Amino acid sequence: MRTQEEFFDQFLAVLRIPLVKSAASGFFDNVRQIQSLVQMPDLLFGFLEIEHGIFTSFMSSAQERWSQGIDYVTFLVEHLKKTAPYSKVGGIPELPERIRKRRDEVLSHPSYGPMLASSMQVLYSAAVSGSWTAFECLAGDLWAAALNEYPLPLAQAAFSCLDTPEAGELTGKQISVGLAAKYGFDLRRSLGTLLKPKFDFTSVRGTQKAYKVFISSDDVLQNIFEDPVLSELEATRHLIVHSASKVDEEYKKRSGSTLEAGMRLTFTEEKTVEFARASQMAGFHLLAFVNDWLGATLRTGDVPRAGGPPIPTVNLNHK
Questions:
Q1: Burial class of 181 by CB neighbour count within 10 A (0 to 12, 13 to 18, 19+)
Q2: 115-119, 135-139, 189-193, 256-260, range with the lowest pLDDT
Q3: What is this structure's pTM?
Q4: N or C: which end of the chain has fewer CB within 10 A?
Q5: For the CA atoms of 25, 31, 37, 41, what is the dihedral angle to 10 degrees?
Q6: 2-27: string of b/e by CB count within 10 Å (b at 16+)?
Q7: d(Cα 87, Cα 273) in Å, to the nearest integer?
Q8: Residue that wins the pLDDT comparison between 31 and 98
Q9: Which of 93-107, 226-240, 301-315 has the weakest average pLDDT?
Q10: Those residues with Cβ within 8 angstroms of residue 8's Cβ, 6 or more apart along the chain or in another chain
């Protein structure tokens, strides 16, 4: 079974478009940070359980050796040899189950349990919020980088997706002289950066609209953006950031929550992991789609890079 890092390495090896590979590297870093947040409580309770196991083993060994009249130094040497297996994976039988029991015991303690439970909610909230932010940043940055590098036909399609022309420096029909001058009157490598603020990457629907510039006959993008958990994640992150996790009518409508308005939303480890996985899977599929779309289109020579000739044939079947 592959480890996560092995999967990341293999994923990067398959990506043949440099801008996609760069976006993937940043996304993977965010995934690692989110997982660290989610795993932090289990690490705490794991250390508590391991410490308890070591202490219990120490006391049992001490009583046995001292009853035999063994001196303290000899006892310590023998005890350290005996506890060496704890440094190896699987050294403590049924450790995951024992960690869960330790967590339940600690959280149910009337003195410090509520404080630790509150702290865990902060960690889970940060992980949920970070899960959406990781996807939002990936989607926006990947989109802008693709348009900057390959303005035709992507930027043209993006202009056609703009709403009714509005006042400002950039619309569907014109670009102000001042804005053009800012980029030396050469916008070939800047159209993605210029157009990105015109699209809403803070929502699933807005991101889906932006990605219509990648004209495709299959339903890969539709499947990505119609994941109900991804939409729930968006609504939940908005609630965390803008309402301090207090449920409102808009959140109930979007998520189907049965909680009463005004109640504070809480998270279990399982729900936090579900949100994180939805963000990761959406990100993985989006990276693969853009990589494959650009690769397939570039093979035809129809999409010139900004300021240069078409890229040579890209082998997407690399293993």
A1: exposed
A2: 189-193
A3: 0.78
A4: N
A5: -120
A6: eeeeeebeebeebbbbebbbebbeeb
A7: 28
A8: 31
A9: 301-315
A10: 28
Q: Which residues of 47-61 are buried (b: 16+ CB within 10 A; e: fewer)?
A: eebbeebeeeeeeeb
**Single-letter amino acid code for the residue at 98:** R
Other Cβ atoms closer than 10 A to 224 = 23
Give DSSP secondary structure letters for the chain.
---HHHHHHHHHHH---HHHHHHHHHHHHHHHHHHHHHHHHHHHHHHHHHHHHHHHHHHHHHHHHHTTT--HHHHHHHHHHHHGGGGSTT-STTHHHHHHHHHHHHHT-TTTHHHHHHHHHHHHHHHHHHHHHHHHHHHHHHHHHHHHH-HHHHHHHHHHHS-S--SSSB-SS-B-HHHHHHTTT--TTTHHHHHGGGS-TTSHHHHHHHGGGS--SSSHHHHHHT-HHHHHHHHHHHHHHHHTTB--HHHHHHH---SPTTPBP---HHHHHHHHHHHHHHHHHHHHHHHHHHHHHHHTT-SPPTTSPPPPP--TT--
Which residues lie closer than 8 Å to 207 by C-beta, 6 or more apart?
136, 139, 140, 199, 200, 201, 225
Contact 312, 78 (CB under 8 A): no
Instruction: Collect all residues with Cβ–Cβ distance below 8 Å to 4 and sequence separation of at least 6.
Output: 35
Q: How far apart are CA 193 and CA 140, in angstroms?
A: 10
Mind listing the pLDDT tens digit for each residue in 155-178? 878 887 776 555 455 554 556 555
**Phi/psi of residue 175, each to 5°?**
-130, 130
pLDDT of residue 17: 93
